[in-house]
Amino acid sequence: MQDKPKKKLEEMVRHQSLVAPRISLTHRRLNPLEKMGRNERCWCLSGKKFKHCHLIRETLEPINAFEQEQRMFAELREGYCSLPKTDGENPCSSTITKAHTIQKRGGLDTIAESNHVLTVKPLMKDLIQSSGNPKPRKIGLNNASVFPGFCSKHDSETFKPIEGKSLNLDTQSAFLFSYRAVAYERFSKEAEGRFIAIMKEVADRGQPFWKQAAMQSLLYDVSFGVDLGKREINRVKESFDRLLLDDSYEGFHYFAIRFDQVLPVVACCAFQPEFDLTGVRLQQLGQDKVELDNITITVTPFEGNTIAVLGWIGPENGPARSLSNSFLSIEKARIADALIRLLFIHSDNIFLNPTWWDDLPERNKVALSNMTRSGTLARERTASEYTNTSLQLSSAAAIETVTG
Fold it and tell me: What is the pTM of this model?
């Protein structure tokens, strides 16, 4: 890796979402009605007649939280190959594989203990027992960071350049890290959408009308947000597909960091950056008719050092570049801390070394756990989370950066 000239922060262009009008939600609210004509379309907007939907919902057998969780897991097992189809050329193999978003050998296993790492994705029993404040839990290496998003042939062929013991970090490898992150996020959003659709049908069974109204209204709002996310990630995935098929990297940019040791975390994610690491707002989510910048981050060890690769397709001087450039405003000994905060804020596809987590001060654990709920109905995302330099999280120092 060799450093290239870096864009100055003052050259960055103010994103249009910062001045665009908010999406209007007033005409999208549900209007729950306890009494309707039997043959009228149900108030929940299922498209079904009232007599076949919420007229009888209170009489149905309730579904418990653990059944809901099993339905969610079932959706996550429904796989497909994410590689774009090319009119019969290079067809898929018959097997959809459990593809690792972070390589197992030399990646996940580097931070594992007894073949296990920690995940921040809770099980339902953990949520219930902790009153909504679950701790990271153990997960085996074979199940960590996997999703059924590629056939076995295309998983091995496509990502071969970034799956070995060593890595030539260039534009091709940065693009492949980003492509895999985008494929994972699209798969996750689609599975989430299918799960929400199922929950609309079953979550309020056996409940009185006021609970039905509250649950359906919540699911409707969540579904609206998921649909926005799906449209956005599909747009991004199409852009990556075009470059992959054209064997071109035009419009793709990246920023990479190499550390002097292995960090206690690995991750793979894609998101829309809202703030940079100095607390400057980059984009405003939920604005009307505005395309947002997306960025991917992959963090994984190679040859005894962790690398972090940020990548995106879009403007050279937009929010994604502003976020990556903001790493350069931080002293090298604190860049790892900033990176770990960023991952906890934006990704649930992050995995931790168990001893590192156990040894953290309790205040750091609480702060990081709160960050996993950032940007949800439970917790608003704020600039202070990005700039919380009081959290000492790693002794690693950045020793090299590259801009592409």
Answer: 0.90
